[in-house]
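F.,

This is the one I mentioned.
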């Protein structure tokens, strides 16, 4: 999250860019990660006063390409918001795939449903309203899944990772957004004294990065984008 429609603006708490602005602009202008459908999602979110926290446009495109390359069809997304990344996932899994996406705020879920309808992918997406912990417990009976995308409350990423590790198949993947912690993940969370929320977020993000990096059942990396996109494939 923490992204507007065309660049990496609105990075939380003043975090800087990893990419130079000219390289970021070149990438966006060349690969064109934002189309009219996704622009409409951003506009719809603004009209409905949703926070501008969808996945970074280039990170979202990367996620779509990775899912297409792997041929994943059955996915879970933790954190729907207005449906921006959900549309990219739904496009990637194709008409024979299915995405289960989770949103805790009912009004956000309604906006997302409209986004999926307008994008023509509503038949391959189920929007579940409730806390992630509650919904994930119910979804476990539908597993195993090909992949899980985590883009919700950062302090609870370790909880969502627990579920993902239990419910993806061998060869499946875990994707997690914002894993640079808004530019602060290099810091020991205990040194962040002036912002308790950021402290808990950084602690959660550091935990999942360390866990995936050291788990012999996974091969993991972090893409050094402005936001940081962690990905891991299950080996065994």
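My design for it:
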């Amino acid at each position: 999250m923490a992204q507007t429609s065309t660049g990496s603006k609105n990075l939380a708490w003043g975090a800087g860019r990893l990419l130079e602005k000219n390289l970021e602009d070149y990438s966006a202008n060349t690969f064109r990660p934002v189309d009219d459908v996704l622009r409409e999602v951003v506009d719809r979110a603004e009209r409905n006063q949703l926070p501008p926290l969808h996945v970074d446009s280039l990170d979202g495109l990367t996620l779509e390409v990775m899912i297409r390359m792997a041929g994943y069809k059955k996915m879970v997304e933790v954190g729907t918001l207005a449906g921006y990344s959900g549309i990219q996932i739904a496009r990637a899994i194709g008409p024979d795939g299915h995405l289960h996406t989770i949103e805790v705020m009912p009004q956000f879920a309604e906006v997302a449903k409209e986004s999926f309808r307008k994008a023509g992918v509503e038949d391959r997406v189920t929007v579940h309203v409730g806390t992630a912990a509650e919904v994930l417990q119910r979804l476990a009976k539908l597993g195993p899944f090909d992949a899980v995308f985590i883009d919700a409350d950062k302090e609870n990423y370790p909880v969502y990772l627990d579920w993902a590790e239990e419910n993806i198949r061998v060869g499946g993947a875990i994707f997690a957004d914002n894993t640079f912690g808004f530019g602060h993940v290099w810091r020991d969370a205990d040194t962040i004294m002036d912002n308790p929320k950021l402290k808990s977020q950084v602690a959660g993000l550091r935990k999942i990065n360390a866990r995936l990096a050291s788990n012999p059942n996974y091969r993991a990396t972090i893409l050094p984008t402005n936001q940081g996109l962690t990905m891991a494939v299950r080996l065994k």
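Residues 12-234 form a domain with the Rossmann fold fold (CATH 3.40.50.150).

Talk soon.
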